[in-house]
Amino acid sequence: MExxxxxxxxxxxxxxxxxxxxxxxxxxxPHLPKTARKVLADIAPWLALISGLFxxxxxxxxxxxxxxxxALGGVIMILGITTLVLxxxxxxxxxxxxxxxxxxxxxxxxxxxxxxxxxxxxxxLSFSTSMMTLSTYGRASxxxxxxxxxxxxxxxxxxxxxxRKQFRNK
Length: 170
Description:
The chain is mostly helical and 170 residues long. It has one domain (33-164). 81% of the residues lie in helices and 0% in strands.
């Protein structure tokens, strides 16, 4: 059995592998004009700041809702707590991206990319949780949210890779 490298360096290396695959995918998508890419890169720090702050605020609400799920226990509770922790990490990464993005450093873009990966993982876990509910409504709602999030992440990923070259390694 192959050993997985779960050190921070190993996780970053895995993320760079995913980045290479996605860069190859998105290079075939239509491209925005240079001026539009520049404008997106200019407002990216502010979008990251606002998104990170609202993310943390909404996660406080989610945490309050999660307290009612403690009665359910088991796997649903564990997945819910994991989703909450991933959301916090993703929001903090967006906040950490602010200054490097303003300085046009690639580190800021990387923080946004890692946040998007964590967000996608969180959506998958949320979908898994909703599929474990007994109600048909819960499953349908979870599927709808999953499809909406998938479309949103495809578009966000495309925009993220459109501005990737606007940021330099330091």
